[in-house]
Automatic annotation (TrEMBL), chain A:
Domain annotation ABC transmembrane type-1: ranges: 57-269
GO cellular component, one term: plasma membrane
Protein name as catalogued: Carbohydrate ABC transporter membrane protein 1, CUT1 family
Bilayer topology annotation: Multi-pass membrane protein
PANTHER family: GLUCOSE IMPORT SYSTEM PERMEASE PROTEIN GLCT, TREHALOSE TRANSPORT SYSTEM PERMEASE PROTEIN SUGA
Keywords linked to the UniProt accession: Membrane, Transmembrane, Transmembrane helix, Transport
Transmembrane segments: 57-83, 95-115, 135-168, 189-207, 248-269
Length: 280, 276
């Protein structure tokens, strides 16, 4: 029963996988038909020496730490709040979940709409309150903050949903006992709640980590890496190399470095699953 | 109410929740609301809350020269077909994987999960070359294959997790009663898997429907999907916000409703079975 699916999966994943490796050792040209010219380690040498690539990885790192960090913190707070509700939690979590079903393109569209310098609602509010009066998506710094917050807006609900599922496994009797002994909320949180959901938090972290490098449509549609390359995370850089400069061999080498990152995350994820299996 | 749930002053809690709800919902409400505003109100210098609602943007989307219909049909066809293939094959493979005891099963699992996690930007590069070579650029089949590259491993993985929750005793009992393996699967196992199948299908459909990067790279004039229609309007000078917000509303609403329909199984689905 497994063979049709596994055969198809092998076909559509292994062929591209070996192609991308082969491409990374070639100069691939698209002009006048496909042409491969073996170029040895040229592309690989560029990957490790190109200052543009290095700065893109750095921006990716900042983007990654900021988005995933904020999502974890806000998502956990969101889950704790909803969990503490005695009624209405069902409808409230449903409302809070909506952003994660929204296509990243539309999240980008919403960002552009809300931040439009001449008639965006958020731009107007920031302007009226005197907090910021420039072109948010057009200025270095504020553009980065904006694209980070768009990602946070879309994916915090996912973290909240995962943490909320974990909170149901917090031992109720231990909490009650702690309360009888006069424990404050902060103490309960630190010594009982957080330790018992640590595995769940790790799942949320890994899921977000893999998606942080998978998707790039929000930035693509809002700043496309600008202004002055300040939001050019590594997937956007790769897309530029491949489809603006048509340097597909080089793009393949950059793509493999990204794959290495996602394979590391996948390894951590399967290890975690195994640990959970043993625990249960 | 259990004692352990009582914490933090109530007012503080409500204030914080309200803030989070506003942060989450304002952009969506503002988009849907503005899609019914005339253009003069949308582009007013100060945001307007009161206006006479109009359907002009929706009407013009479906009637003007560059109608949204072809985009909508492409989206439905491509996302629908890739979902169907992924769910059927994923269900079969998931059942097999869940029941089989073989050496190296964890390597198989690792291969499946890492294909699901592969960065889209990295997958696009070799696929573009292969599609060009096979004349699959600007075809429905090309995009369906592209979406299968993430939906198929997702469906296999998730269905395996759902089957793992179902004790094999049931189908074994049916087989003792004389049913063949296929009959046991068809009449005993499958009906119990409905929530799993529906969840997997809805999530696969949402992933494909929401994709932009693959469609942007592989589609051409005859295969463009709705996200591409939005992106095209967005890159024009003099953005037609009314039309765009109407497209946004059309893209978002069905997916939000579909997603919330399977809310109970969402955690399991979106964590690939790691959380139940």
């Amino acid at each position: 029963m497994m063979s049709p699916a596994l055969f198809l999966l092998a076909l559509i994943t292994l062929v591209p996988f070996f192609s991308i490796i082969w491409m990374s050792f070639n100069d691939v040209s698209l002009m006048g038909g496909l042409a491969f010219e073996f170029s040895g380690l040229d592309n690989w040498q560029r990957v490790f020496t190109d200052p543009d690539i290095r700065s893109s990885w750095l921006i990716s790192l900042v983007y990654f730490l900021a988005t995933v960090g904020l999502e974890m913190v806000i998502g956990t707070v969101m889950a704790l709040l909803v969990y503490s509700l005695t009624r209405g939690s069902n409808i409230i979590i449903s409302l809070l979940l909506i952003p994660m079903f929204i296509a990243p393109v539309i999240v980008g569209l919403l960002g552009r709409f809300m931040l439009d310098p001449s008639h965006g609602l958020y731009a107007w509010m920031l302007n009226e309150s005197g907090l910021f009066d420039g072109n948010i998506l057009g200025s270095v710094g504020s553009a980065m903050v904006a694209v980070i917050l768009m990602d946070v807006w879309e994916w915090t609900p996912l973290v909240a949903l995962i943490v909320l599922a974990g909170l149901t496994s917090v031992p109720e009797d231990v909490l009650e006992a702690a309360e009888m002994d006069g424990a404050r909320y902060g103490q309960k949180l630190l010594y009982i709640i957080l330790p018992s959901i640590s595995n769940i938090l790790l799942v949320a972290l890994l899921i977000r980590a893999m998606d942080a490098i998978r998707f790039f449509a929000i930035i693509f549609i809002t700043t496309n890496g600008g202004p002055a390359d300040s939001t050019k995370i590594i997937p956007i850089r790769l897309y530029d190399i491949a489809f603006r400069f048509f340097d597909l061999g080089y793009a393949a080498a950059v793509g493999i470095t990204m794959l290495v990152f996602s394979i590391m995350v996948a390894t951590a994820f399967t290890k975690l699953l195994k640990r959970q299996e043993k625990a249960s | 109410m259990t004692a352990s749930k009582r914490w933090l002053p109530l007012t503080f809690k409500i204030a914080l929740l309200t803030l989070l709800l506003l942060w989450t919902l304002i952009p969506i409400i503002w988009m849907v609301l503005s899609s019914f505003k005339p253009n003069t109100i949308i582009t007013a210098d100060t945001p307007q809350v009161f206006f006479t609602p109009t359907l002009e943007h929706y009407v013009s989307l479906f009637s003007s020269g560059n109608s949204l219909w072809p985009y909508l049909l492409n989206s439905l066809f491509i996302a629908g077909t890739s979902t169907l293939i992924a769910v059927v094959l994923g269900c079969m493979a998931g059942f097999g994987l869940s029941r089989i005891r073989i050496k190296g099963k964890q390597h198989l699992a690792f291969w499946i999960i890492s294909t699901r996690m592969a960065p889209i930007a990295a997958v696009i590069v070799p696929l573009y070359l292969l599609f060009r070579y096979l004349y699959l650029l600007d075809t429905h089949a090309g995009l369906i294959v592209a979406y299968l590259s993430f939906n198929l491993p997702f469906a296999i993985w998730l269905m395996t997790a759902f089957f793992d929750d179902l004790p094999p005793d049931l189908e074994e009992a049916a087989m003792i009663d004389g049913a063949t393996k296929f009959q046991a699967f068809r009449h005993v196992v499958l009906p119990l898997m409905t929530p799993g199948l529906v969840t997997t299908a809805i999530l696969c459909f949402i992933f494909a429907w929401n994709d932009y990067a693959f469609a942007q790279t592989f589609s051409g004039p005859s295969t463009q999907t709705i996200p591409i229609a939005a992106a095209q309007l967005l890159t024009q000078t003099g953005i037609d916000w009314g039309k765009l917000l109407a497209i946004g509303t059309i893209v978002v609403c069905p997916m939000a409703i579909a997603g919330l329909l399977v809310k109970r199984w969402l955690v399991q689905g979106l964590t690939l079975g790691a959380v139940k």
